Amino acid sequence: MDLLDQLAEARIAEALARGDFEDLLGAGRPLELDDDALVPEELRVAYRVLKNAGYAPEEVRLLGELRSAEALILQATRPEERTAATARLRLLLDRLGAGRAGSLRLQQEYFERLLERLDGAGG
Q1: Cβ(21)–Cβ(15) under 8 Å?
Q2: pLDDT, tens only, 95-115
């Protein structure tokens, strides 16, 4: 165990002795373990803690909004509704792909496949 691990363990032991962990939300209940096979191993605990605390990574939130935008495109009955939902989808794709190498090409492919699928669904 290196020095940093020893320091962390000592701080945790001190907090336990003070009772700092006794009134935590969810104390005494098992952790909710989801399928996190696609999350890098070194990030799984951190993501789980954030999720259990009601927080989600920005990408997760954006992916949820993507699904909502897709649903709006499917439900659009007027051309202007579909145009607005399509613009929202493009904006979300831009936000999701910001800072990723090759993301623009992947976004364009995704967007084209999505529109093909939606057109085939009678949209």
Answers
A1: yes
A2: 777 655 455 666 677 777 777
Same domain, 65 and 84: yes
Domain match, 31 and 46 both: yes
Same domain flag for 112 and 65: yes
Domain boundaries, position 42: 3-52
What are the C-alpha distances in Å from 119 to residues 32, 64, 75? 39, 22, 12
Q: Where do runs of H (alpha helix) occur along the chain?
A: 3-18, 41-52, 58-75, 79-97, 103-120
Same domain assignment for residues 88 and 43: no
- Tokens at 5, concatenated: 């691990």
Residues 36 and 10 in one domain: yes
* Six token digits for residue 82: 């579909």
Q: What's the pLDDT tens digit per position in 6-26?
A: 888 999 999 999 988 888 877
